[in-house]
Amino acid sequence: MFQRSALFVMCLFAPIAAYAQRDLTDIPVPDPMEELKTFVVAKGFEVNLFAADPQIHKPIQINFDPQGRLWVAASEVYPQIAPGQIANDKILILEDTDGDGISDKTTVFADGLLIPTAVIPGDGGAYVANSTELLHLTDTDGDGKADQSRIVLSGFGTEDTHHILHTFRWGPECLFYMNQSIYIHSHVETPYGVKRLNAGGIWRFRPETLQLDVLARGWVNTWGHAFDKWGQSFVTDGAGGEGINYLVPGAAYPTAYGVNEILHGLNPGSPKYCGLEIVDGRHLPEDWQGSLITHDFRGHRVCRFVVSDEGSGFSSQQMPDVISTNHVAFRPIDVKQGLDGAIYIADWYNPIIQHGEVDFRDPRRDHTHGRIWRVTAKGRPLVPQVKLVDMPVRYLLNELNSPEMNTRTQAKRVLKERGADVVLPELASWVRHLDIERADYEPRLLEALWMYQAFDTVNLQVLTELLAAGSPQIRAAAVRVVPHWADRIDQPEELLAKAVHDEYPRVRLEAVRALAAIPTVRSAELALAVIDHPLDGFLAYATRQTCREMKPIWLPAVIHRQFNTEGHLARLIFAIEAAEATESIPLLVESLQSGELSAEERPRLLQLIGALGAPKHLRLVFDLSVAEKTSPEEANHLLQALIDAKQRRNVQPAGDLNALSRWFQGDSTTLKVQAITAAGLWKIESLKSPLIELASRKDGPPEVSLAAIQSLSMFGDAAAIAALTQIARESDSEPIRGRALMELVNLAPAKAAESSIRWWQNSHDTGAQLQVMQAFLQKKGAADVLAAALDGQKIPEDVAKIGLRAVTGSGRPEPALSAALTKAGGITNEPKMLTPEEMQALVAVVKEQGNPAHGEAIFRRADLSCFKCHAIGGAGGKVGPDLISIGASAQVDYLIDSLLLPNKNVKEGYQTAVVLTDEGKVLTGVKVRQSDTALIIRDAEDKELSIPLNTIEEVNNGSTLMPVGLTEKLTRAELIDLVRFLSELGKPGPYAVGTQPVARQWVGLLPTDDSYRRLTRTSDAQLMADDTSLTWALQYATVSGELPLSGLPTFGTKVKLVQSNRYVSFVRTFLQTTMAGETVLQWNDVTGLQIWIDGQPANPATPMKLELPEGRHSLSVAIDLNVRQTPLKLELLPSTSGAKFVAP
Amino acid sequence: MRARDAICWLSLVFVGSASAAVFAADDSAPDVAPTTFELRDGDRVVLLGGTFIEREGQYGYIETALTAAYPYQQITFRNLGWSGDTVWAESRGVFDPPAVGYQRMVDLVTELKPTVIILAYGQNEAFAGDAGLEKFRQQYRKLCDDLSPTQARLVFVTPYLFEKADPPLPDASRWNPALQSYAQAIRELAAERHGSVVDLTAALADVTGRTENGIHLTSQGYQRAALAFSDAVGVSQPVPGTGELQQKIVEKNTLFFHRWRPQNITYLFLFRKHEQGNNAVDIPMFDELTAEADQEIAKLRQSLP
Fold first, then answer.
1. What is the pLDDT of residue B16?
2. Exposure of A872 in the CB half-sphere (CA atoms within 13 A)
3. Residue A246 pLDDT > 90
């Protein structure tokens, strides 16, 4: 076996080819029939070509008009206009005049456009997204071509041409919806003021009044938005990894800035999805009704999901693919159901996707092709044609009863364009004549309500009736209408008084969001009543969001005692907590002192005071924490609240705090650590000596010494430095020396450097070494101090390598320290670069000889730590991108580059932020989100750090956290296998993450001394629930979902808990249920397994039916390695409890 | 676009040095700012403002009127309008806070070496009503201070009034009292700064039928605004036969737009330039194209009847 470095010639000065997808030399033949042949189509369905180039090219969005014609926004200019190029992109209309399922007429409706990313017909023409503008184009002379263009809105950002205004939709109430992606900053003047949206989100717009607001925000590329038949919104993200998103009005999703809390998608660990349509109607079979169709455009798949109610929200289950193929140019990006019931798919047709990773001008970028595919159910009749456009109003109204949502939506569009004067009288009569006895009475009345909303005409009678509908989904839909009419209804909030107590959680959710838009005290009172009922994740979020938005309404009322909680203090606590309403603390203190609180309310209130209070309020919490009668558990909670107050807000209790020393004694190590931490944070001078004593003790628990060292450093004076220096030199525990050195770096960097170098000569604890190196990198200027101190010194090569790894993790080059470490450690290797020829040769070998199975084993190797940063299908670290479909989107040369030269291509959202704080700390990590008060980053160790905004002096862009020199650990053959494995990820085949929920993240019990002691002494099954002396380490399933037994931590001696021999492994995974109900588990095989659910033994069987209450559940397994060799695979079958696997 | 990436266009076009008149500092501001101004041979005019200025770039009426008013003078225009903008440059932050976008705007204007700056602010700020007036006044002053190193002559455009549009559009004329207050503040500022005023508040006091939606001008509205500019420079008749000239001006503005506000700046100049920053070489090529268009405009204006 030869080393890679022997083969990869270093050529630092050779020109690097600009092409990131070099191996894409096999550009497929652009014959649509050849493409069609490669499609694997869902059982019972077939695909035909509806339209193709040269009639159409590069379709971006498609939408039908009421005549059944398909409008296409198409761009040849994308991704970037060239100097001298005339922007001439087009809007096309495709028509199937003879009904054979194939377009036979193409009209160029408009040209001369600049990258139109969306089109939707309406209002006598079509709305088009044209760079910074929303245009309305009309054909006034009837020649089929637009001759008038009106700017409807302008000021949309263009920071990235696949982010610009997109995804136009008509809502069920004829409102106009449009999306923008994360890099876009929009500033739109309207007669109501300037509307701004910085970053991604969905706009809601009423064209005739120009009312414009943001429905929800966050996401990266919200390239899919669809309504179900009850008006609920679902969203997909073309750069997110959470599958189908259920949209809560006004919510913030991952990537939203300036928020404290975000909502997540329903299928975490998914590939990126583009486009979204909800399909139904007579043409499709029963099990497809209401299905969500979207595209894994990277993996060349058209996917189907089914959502079902889960609490106030939904759960989403992936079904078998609609289309899958290996054809590299098949890029499904939009999908719409036609009025004939068939499903139409816009295939952007391009071997190269987007323009972040691939050169704008790459010659292989396709600018001319494009297809529309049409999917039909074999042997099922199409939906009969209706001519909506010429239909009299009363017949159009009857179409609101159509079984096809699409037909109803188009009928409403036609009615809307006929105008209120013509339609409203007939609508009123239609409503009067609806047959109340019919099963579809309420759905029809809902369509009427939406029609009234379309005309913005209040109909209190219909609204009131539907707010009391029998169907909960219809009640929820009616609730959503209320705020739109609130300005014209007397006491509109009273309409929602029942809804906040509705038995169906989504009605409560809609009510609590609707009330947020009605800014009265009564409205806030009603909204808070929701918390009298159980809150699931979505509902709790919605309620907190309402509390935050309505804070200016309810807080003054609370302070002036004009807020009615109907005796439920819990409501108020909830609101104060959610909105961090510091101003209300005196009131809380009063309630506390009144002594009228219940046993549950009291600790919660105290914590709240700790979280929000001023020094005099914190004093009350402090006094209680050290009171004679206070139990260690309660003291623990209270001290934690006080520590949080200091760390998050820099506020501490008033007065003399010496009484804290009470908890320096006692049995509880946890409490002792808390007290020591607090003593340091508060710098209690009189406790410094006891802290020095605790820090230097050799016989006590290490956590106590570590905490004392940290606290000592808070004092930062000569005495503390002297004590720390002594510990750093003399302690015989490496973690303790390391900790003392870390603290010393901040206080006396030169002293720390000298002591560190001395320690490194004979140290073995690599974790402690890394931490100390990081400390030098995190203190401004300390890295150079260390570099200077290393001059002329020798340190072990391995320590130097750890130092270099820490430099990588810092995201900064630190040339002086890197050179000093390299020299002191005697390291000779340097990063290698490939010539284009070498790259080409390597790419060929990967394709011919690479073994993906070996590659997966290499990926899982501990010394490479791939999983530490990268997940596959949600299982793994979050520092780097999820690699679930990397093979389907990235070419082989890109993968090789990413391994050899991590800084060459950094995925969007994974550049590091280098944060300089006012204390001179330099923190590096990938930005997770930013709230009003803190910036949250994720460091190279996959830890989230929250940095208060008011301590940040500067934020700069750093490089990637992906370590350079990773491949040094690989032979050439191993590198080839690893790349091959990565290149298979997400492609149809064994390395595509399946659709069935499977346990991917496990923890394995480490055979530590403590674990041995516990397991050999007790047979108490409860041990498997929550014994804190056991240490578990993450274990990941393979892409196929199996947990291999080799490599699991193993107990080599007999343990009491298991009736077996030696060689047992313990693993555990976790389930979250959203309601009490049945959960069904399926094991691949139960041989050699003993199973515990929440510490209770369960009979190993498959399928395994469990009745679990709502909440989080541990599922522990002992594996007898003497009788079992097969890997472990655990799947979840559809369950009524909404169970999901969650991270350990 | 980072300001430093914007190179100045003028050296390609102009030979003689800028005839930027340096006004002697005059401590006593006049009570009323003049409502006329003149352009001079060699002037480089920069326009700043919100949607009104941004769309003027696409209509070209005002620029055409001013170009036609001086058929034999070499005057160039660069439109830096940005929808929704305010004196705080609230639309120009891009990935940064507005304050950073503000500085970028000042730097860009400075690099363009203007001799005249046409400022059209106040319309978006007026949505804040009287409560926001004093802050507006202060910030507009600061903007003038920050632009003063250019020594450019300042032309202050007061906001036109809003129209009571037909329902269901809202009645935007409810903002008119606020617009009047802001206009007055601008007139006072113009006097204080020895600038001129183009009083659109007066010239477009009757906006009936001249807005798209109550707040944005139609082409008729822009023609009326252009007339106000013609009046201000002393050419009270709109010049006939400007079709080809106007078209070329709009073309030039489109080229310059691609230069200073190109799409994909994230990749070209900002935090993803390590990926596609090599494509940024295209962007300065628009300078040459813009300069060529300026020359064609020069030919067209000289051949006006």
1. 30
2. 27
3. yes
More confident residue, A1 or A668: A668
Q: Are residues A49 and A147 in the same domain?
A: yes
Contacts for A1090 with CB less than 8 Å, ≥ 6 apart: A1058, A1097, A1100, A1117, A1118, A1120
Containing structural domain, residue A602: 581-654
Do both A214 and A314 map to the same domain? yes
- Do A157 and A195 fall into the same domain? yes
Domain boundary pick from A552, A580, A608: A580
The string of DSSP codes covering A489-557 is SSSGGGGGTTGGG-SSHHHHHHHHHHHHTS-SHHHHHHHHHGGGS---HHHHHHHHHHHHHTHHHHHHH
Same domain for A613 and A522, yes or no, is no
Instruction: Tell which residue, A95, A104, A148, A158, has the closest CA to residue A126.
Output: A148
Contact of B275 with chain A, judged by CB distance below 8 Å, is answered with: yes
| Domain residue ranges in chain B | 3-8+30-240
- Positive/negative CA dihedral, A595, A596, A598, A603: negative
Residue A1042 and residue B219: Cα distance in Å, rounded?
67
- A306, β-bridge pairs: A317
- CA-nearest residue to A355 within chain B is B276
Q: Which CATH number is B3-8+30-240 given? A: 3.40.50.1110
From B288's Cα to the closest Cα of chain A, the distance in A is 10
Q: Are A1119 and A1064 in contact (CB under 8 A)?
A: yes
**Cα angle A61, B257, A80; round to 5:** 40
Q: Which amino acid, residue A180?
A: Q
Query: What is the distance between the alpha carbons of residues B92 and A516, in angstroms, rounded to a whole number?
Result: 31
Confidence of residue A1100 (pLDDT cuts 50, 70, 90): confident
pLDDT at A1060: 60
Cβ-based neighbours of A633, under 8 Å, separated by 6 or more: none
Per-residue confidence (pLDDT) for residue A1061, from 0 to 100: 62
Q: Which of B95, B275, B281, B286 to mutate to test the interface with A (most CBs of A within 10 A)?
A: B275
A1107 neighbors A1099 (Cβ within 8 angstroms): no
B91 touches chain A (CB under 8 A): yes
ipTM above 0.90, yes or no: yes
- At B78, list the tokens: 């660069």
Q: Are A135 and A127 in contact (CB under 8 A)?
A: yes
Q: How many helices (H) and strands (E) does chain B have?
A: 12, 5
pTM for the whole thing? 0.77
pLDDT per residue over A549-595, tens digit each?
Answer: 999 999 999 988 899 999 888 898 899 989 989 888 888 888 777 76
Question: What CA–CA distances, in Å, run from B112 to A164, A1044, B4, B80, B258?
Answer: 28, 66, 11, 11, 16
Output the average pLDDT for chain A. 89
Is B121 within 8 Å of chain A by CB? no
Cβ-based contacts of A183 with chain B (< 8 Å): 95, 266
Alpha-carbon distance B37 to nearest alpha carbon in chain A (angstroms) = 29
A189–B258 CB contact, under 8 Å:
no
What's the rounded Cα separation, in Å, for the pair A551 and A527?
Answer: 12
pLDDT tens digits for range B170-199: 999 999 999 999 999 999 999 999 999 999
pLDDT in tens, A328-357: 999 999 999 999 999 999 999 998 887 777
